[in-house]
Amino acid sequence: MQDTDLMLRVQKGDEAAFNTIVERYQKRILDLCTRYVGNPADGEEVAMDVFFQLYRTRLDYRPEAKLSTYLYRIAVNRSLNRIRDRKRRRLVSFEWLRRDRPFDPGAPDEERPDSMLETAEREALVRGAVDGLPEKQKTALLLRRTEELSYEEIAAAMGTTVSAVESLLFRARETLKKKLRPVIS
Amino acid sequence: MNCSDVEKWLSAYMDGELIPARKDAVASHLGSCEACRSRLAEWKAVWQALDALPAAAPSPAFRSRLAARIRESERPPVSERFERFLIPVSAAAVALLGFWIGYIAGGRQASSAGIPDSVSPIASTAYLDSFNSVPTASLGDIYLSLNDAIGSEETP
């Protein structure tokens, strides 16, 4: 069933239709939110906010709007709010770098502590570079890289033009190229 | 098409967002320009480096927590719930109070009704014997006179 039909059913109180939407989009929204806010726990909270908001404002949804675009827009806004809240509260989460597995000398290379440290450092570097991008560049980059949205879809989700998206992605790539030189060279 | 044109279109080229004619022109330029090829290679490496950001998987409780949050949001607000609760509880309290008052009053009547009439004046008179020596025209004297008068009326 099409997203629009599902949303129309949700508007009439069909709980199963809402569950289908959550099932269909939870992975994508969770991925986007987690990469946006920088750690899995916050990412999941924000993703939950997104679906909760979708349910709460279900009567505001208009079939002319693509549901995925509507969801991505909520996801980006909620992620930005979470980051701003965190900055205000000056909370820093190291969850992203945490590794709970004990040392195992027979483990494959990628699970050895030295390799894990290298991976963690790499993640931290990439995370830092992405987090350091201006909000709009970061949004465009993640929607393209994580969600593989077209420029038109990104523009719709961000409420901007396709040429603005082109420009944002160009600048994001140039900035990341400089910041990630140690990783890519 | 020169390097500055290509620079403008390279990002869209990499993302497969160019119209075919423009895409061919960029591809043709890349075939002959080492600098632009190098920039494209760096961008591709950047794109690959972003794989370091791990994908997320929803926790098993994600759906149930979401459902619980929605259910909670659909419950009426606390004030409304309080009002709904308050009315029947107040009515029940008033009814209970009524029963209690009725019970107490009924109990008193029953206890006074339970004392035999023949015992009551004797007990009262016996008790009031201690007032025999009351001064004339005192409150005690008046009470005893009245009591005697009532006793003589009741006696056939």
Q: Would you spell out the secondary-structure blueprint of this structure?
A:
The complex is a heterodimer of chains A (185) and B (156).
Chain A: H1 3-11, H2 15-37, H3 40-56, H4 67-89, H5 113-131, H6 135-145, H7 151-158, H8 162-179, H9 181-184
Chain B: H1 3-14, H2 20-32, H3 34-49, H4 62-74, H5 78-113, H6 119-128, H7 139-154
Describe what you observe in this structure:
- The complex is a heterodimer of chains A (185) and B (156).
- Chain A is an all-alpha fold and 185 residues long.
- Chain A has 2 domains: 1-98, RNA polymerase sigma factor, region 2, helix turn helix motif (Rna Polymerase Sigma Factor, Chain: A), CATH 1.10.1740.10; 107-180, Arc Repressor Mutant, subunit A, CATH 1.10.10.
- Helix content of chain A is 71%, strand content 0%.
- Chain A contains 9 helices and no strands.
- The longest helix of chain A is centred in the first third of the chain and has 23 residues, at 15-37.
- Residues 96-103 of chain A have low confidence and may be disordered.
- Chain B is mainly α.
- Chain B has 7 helices and no strands.
- The A-B interface holds A 19, 22, 26-27, 30-31, 33-35, 40, 43-44, 47-48, 51-52, 55-56, 119, 122-123, 125-127, 130, 141, 144-145, 150-151, 166, 169-170, 173, 176-177, 180, 183-184 and B 7-8, 10-12, 15, 17, 42-43, 45-50, 52-59, 62-63, 65-66, 69-70, 73.
Task: Sum up the structure in keywords.
heterodimer, A: 185 residues, mainly alpha, Rna Polymerase Sigma Factor, Chain: A, Arc Repressor Mutant, subunit A, 2 domains, 9 helices, 0% strand, B: 156 residues
Concise synopsis of the structure shown:
Chain A has 185 residues and is an all-alpha fold. Chain A is built from 9 helices and no strands. Chain A folds into 2 domains: 1-98, Rna Polymerase Sigma Factor, Chain: A, CATH 1.10.1740; 107-180, Winged helix-like DNA-binding domain superfamily/Winged helix DNA-binding domain (Arc Repressor Mutant, subunit A, Orthogonal Bundle), CATH 1.10.10.10.
